[in-house]
Design a protein that fits this description.
The complex is a heterodimer of chains A (422) and B (283). By secondary structure, chain A is of the alpha/beta class. Helix content of chain A is 47%, strand content 14%. Chain A is built from 18 helices and 13 strands. In chain A, the strands form four sheets. A five-stranded mixed β-sheet of chain A has the order 2-1-3-12-6. Chain A has a four-stranded mixed β-sheet with strand order 8-9-7-10. Chain A is globular. The two termini of chain A are 25 Å apart. Chain B has one domain: MetI-like fold. The chains are: A alpha/beta (422), B mainly alpha (283). The interface between A and B is large, with 38 and 35 residues.
């Protein structure tokens, strides 16, 4: 054993001694405790399902911890990186399946779901797989639409975008309409990107232009992230915040962006279907949802992928963890999950089971996009690093950095970080 | 051989220091020579981690930003804390209230301080910008403007730090014998001459302490960068500590992160030694 590992082990032993004495103090109990790290959705969206599992499994004491998105990924890095048996299960971002699987942080679920694989939507199952094996349980997928404040369009006398797939607007049309409506000095904006710094939402712009995001082997970014088409699409993005002044720069919090649109301060917002509930319930303006824009001369590409559930391969409660996983992969549980938080279903049966709720034009568009234009983020082992570096680059570009220089820098940093996967 | 009883009294503190300070530093230094494979095994990398960081121009730029921040923030905090200490030094009406108000920012956590100032200085929602707009100055980017972000960080750390350092300055002021001021007055010294020739020389030690302590804190400045700017805009607040965090938790390269931490430790020690040498007194 190397000296460094010995030193770490000595430190861990001290911590372990503390844990053992704490456990002795509490005393043994019959229930098995499952530790779950969960995405930081609102408690009212999470508790009903956890309680349901608890009722059906009285021998399991569920200890779940909700962590906000921004902290979740680094928390998981620390906890999984320590390679201990806990957490037993965790919410895994679909884009990181390959990264977690390559590093031995996900249990191969194929043996447990071998007879069930055709129940899952193929794109969602693909995102949960690595090297042909299923490593995570698909729990949600996502789709983005463009939400339109009809009142603001009418007030400005601008023609509304079509709700038909065939009438899908180009980004160029979006920009022109946004310029005609925006009045930044009055805090009135033309178009918002709900996750304005996250590659999840922005990569489809580059893909719509025909850009390749990373080398085929996923190990090189130079020539791709700073390639011509990538730069062109990013320049368009930069201009929305800079030259055109139709989008507020520096607004990175998803909740704040949503707030701007839902309070009537923006004419359009490209955002997730999770906005539908709030709009239907409480919007005090007329609104429509239209297909995600694309670049003229390019192809329509929409973002997808969302949350999965993973089992830590080092868990000491494998049976209980598998029971948890199987519970959350049930049709009725995921149907209830949809009612708590309307992500597009990942189980084929639920499109029928929830047909009463998944009706209307917005869901018609979402279903079409999921089947025809949705492209998941690149399933490369280094996506965690790729995403983080690109996110910081997008932030800087949004706030005025030179597009080409900043993407050159990002590509350089990515190459350095991706090298460890060679 | 008889052991000096003083060592028995020192033993608990030494043990605490060993477990909580020296051991982690040792782990960090040893770890800086290792890397981790994808499946979590440690591998000896020799000097590779150090060679990679010395060849990283972006990291060298981060050291520059961190040093510039310290060159501005530390003297500013010393001057302001000494000034406010002088203002609230003499007893007077409501002096206790003034001292409490000046100390109040210290009671807030750094993360909370960052959240508050981020909101106050927000270009769209912040009340500070609403006032600037109303008086005709116009809205400022503050943390979201490349040219203003570092200055805004200096303001944030100074706002929180001055009240704390004021306490040490006050302690120093109280230690100056009153008789020296009386003698100076009898000799006809003006207020400025008393400050220049009595107060300042005798405050050398407290000032040296505040300088070294604030350097140690500000060289390791991190939380507001994480909360507010994530190193931006365009690298304007790309402090070394943020890069160390990124290497460990976002880029999953603990060895490199520990190598940067070790270099940072050496830099902080070197700066502190230089500061103490500059502030040395003749006695």
């Amino acid at each position: 054993m190397h000296l460094f590992q010995k030193l770490l082990k000595a430190g861990s032993s001290l911590a372990l001694a503390g844990s053992i004495s704490a456990a002795l103090a509490v005393g043994a109990h019959a229930q098995t405790e499952l530790n779950v790290v969960w995405m930081g959705w609102a408690e009212e969206s999470v508790k009903p399902l956890m309680d349901w599992f608890g009722k059906e499994n009285p021998d399991i004491n569920l200890n779940y911890q909700r962590i906000p998105y921004n902290e979740l990924l680094s928390t998981l890095e620390v906890r999984l990186g320590s390679r201990t048996p806990e957490p037993d299960l965790y919410s895994a971002d679909a884009s990181l399946t390959a990264s977690y699987a390559a590093r031995g942080h996900l249990l191969d679920l194929t043996p447990y779901f071998a007879d069930d694989l055709d129940r899952f939507d193929s794109a969602a199952l693909g995102a949960a797989s690595y090297n042909g094996k299923m490593y995570a349980g698909p729990f949600a997928t996502s789709m983005q639409l463009m939400f339109v404040n009809v009142d603001l369009f009418k007030k400005a006398g601008v023609e509304l975008p079509s709700t038909d797939i065939d009438g899908r607007w180009t980004w160029e049309q979006v920009r022109e309409a946004a310029k005609a409506i925006a009045k930044p000095e009055d805090n009135l904006w033309g178009v918002l990107l709900e996750q304005s710094d996250r590659p999840y939402q922005l990569l489809p712009l580059m893909q719509s232009k025909g850009a390749q995001l990373v080398s085929d082997d996923g190990l090189e970014a130079t020539g791709y992230v700073n390639g011509e088409k990538f730069v062109e699409a990013t320049q368009f993005y930069a201009d929305l915040f800079g030259a055109d002044k139709v989008s507020p720069p520096g607004l990175f919090e998803l909740n704040l962006v949503q707030e701007v649109f839902h309070t009537g301060h923006a004419a359009m917002m490209v955002g997730g279907t999770w906005n539908l509930g709030r709009l239907e319930k409480s919007a005090d303006f007329e609104w429509i949802a239209v297909p995600h824009p694309y670049f003229a001369g390019g192809v329509p590409v929409t973002p997808t992928g969302s949350w999965q559930i993973g089992i830590n391969p080092r868990t000491e409660h494998l049976d209980e963890s598998v029971r948890f996983m199987k519970f959350f992969m049930r049709d009725d549980v995921q149907a209830e999950w949809y009612k708590l938080r309307p992500y597009p279903p990942v189980l084929k049966a639920n499109w029928d089971n929830l047909s009463d709720l998944l009706k209307g034009k917005p869901w018609e568009i979402a279903k079409y996009e999921l089947q025809n234009t949705a492209v998941p983020r690149p399933p490369i082992p280094g996506f965690r690093e790729y995403e983080e570096i690109l996110k910081l680059a997008f932030r800087d570009i949004q706030q005025g950095a030179d597009v080409r220089e900043r993407l050159d820098k990002a590509a350089r940093e990515m190459d350095r970080e991706l090298a460890k996967y060679k | 051989m008889r052991i000096n009883p003083a060592y028995y009294f020192l033993a608990p503190a030494f043990m605490g220091l060993s477990v909580f300070k020296i051991f982690p530093i040792g782990v960090a230094i040893v770890g800086s020579f290792y890397g981790t494979t994808l499946i979590g095994e440690s591998v000896f990398r020799g000097l590779d981690n150090y060679l990679s960081i010395f060849g990283d121009l972006d990291l060298l730029r981060s050291f520059g930003i961190t040093l510039l921040f310290n060159l501005i923030a530390n003297p500013l905090q010393i001057v302001l804390s000494l000034m406010v200490a002088l203002l609230v030094f003499r007893p007077g009406p409501l002096i206790g209230l003034f001292r409490s108000v000046l100390f109040l920012p210290v009671t807030l956590s750094l993360v909370l301080t960052a959240l508050i100032w981020n909101l106050l200085l927000d270009p769209y929602l912040g009340p500070v910008n609403a006032v600037l707009d109303a008086v005709g100055i116009g809205r400022q980017g503050f943390f979201k403007d490349e040219a203003q972000a570092l200055g805004s960080m200096v303001w944030l750390t100074t706002w929180r730090g001055v009240g704390y350092w004021m306490l040490f300055m006050l302690a120093g002021l109280y230690a100056i014998p009153e008789s020296l001021y009386e003698a100076a007055k009898i000799d006809g010294a003006s207020w400025w001459q008393r400050f220049r020739h009595v107060t300042l020389p005798l405050m050398r030690r407290p000032i040296a302490f505040v300088l070294v302590a604030s350097t140690a804190i500000n060289m390791l400045f991190f939380a507001p960068v994480y909360v507010i700017t994530a190193g931006g805009p365009n690298g304007a607040t790309d402090f070394v500590m943020f890069r160390i965090y990124q290497a460990a938790f976002n880029y999953i390269d603990v060895g490199r992160s520990l190598a940067m931490s070790t270099v940072m430790l050496v830099v902080v020690l070197a700066v502190a030694i230089v500061e103490l040498w500059l502030m040395r007194s003749e006695d």
